[in-house]
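Everyone, carefully examine this protein record:
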Amino acid sequence: MDLGRILFFGGLFLVVVGAIVLRFPNLLSWFGKLPGDFRIEGDRISLFIPLTSMILVSVIMSIGISLMAKLLSWR
């Protein structure tokens, strides 16, 4: 396991995603407004529980980590 390669490609991925989000800010405007993201607002308090959005993030990260493991031949 080469930690330097992992950190390099992980950082490169974050830079690319950050550049895309900065260039196209409306690309992810739907995130946080999915069915299953609960928003409860009262007179004095508001509560936001992004359940579906976090499940989606978890699935995408699991797929990404799995692909990275296969590309870097960890297994």
The longest helix spans residues 3-23. The mean pLDDT is 87. Helices lie at 3-23, 51-71. The CA atoms of residues 17 and 28 lie 11 Å apart.
